[in-house]
From TrEMBL:
Biased composition regions of type Basic and acidic residues, renumbered to the chain: 90-106
Domain of life: Bacteria
Region: Disordered, residue numbers: 81-106
Name used for this protein in its record: Biopolymer transporter Tol
Length: 106
């Protein structure tokens, strides 16, 4: 898959003429891959919940999409406005929340 076009400052990618916030480039490879995998699982779960007309499952899946997008730096406080420690804390907190999401008594 070809790398999308980036704005000159690297903060955004251009896809089909639309500007989207880029993933934080400072997230290490392994955590970034885990976050993308969790994001894609949550997106698939949104679709499954919509097909099943299960509002509770849809709400849960959309919440996981939000957690992953924030952890990746694509939503929330822009990653370029955060310190290195804030950026690390953001993606670590996101992974922790997603790893524990939906587990009873945690």
């Amino acid at each position: 898959m070809a790398e999308p076009e980036h704005t000159p400052d690297g903060h955004f990618v251009i896809i089909n003429g639309r500007r989207w916030r880029a993933t934080d480039p400072e997230i290490p490879t392994e955590p970034a891959a885990r976050l993308r995998s969790l994001l894609m699982t949550a997106r698939r779960d949104v679709g499954a919940a919509l097909r099943a007309q299960d509002a509770e499952a849809e709400r849960d899946a959309r919440g996981r999409v939000q957690l992953a997008k924030v952890a990746l730096g694509e939503r929330g406080t822009p990653w370029w406005e955060q310190t290195a420690s804030q950026r690390r804390q953001r993606w670590q907190d996101g992974l922790d929340a997603l790893d524990h999401h939906g587990r009873p008594n945690e």
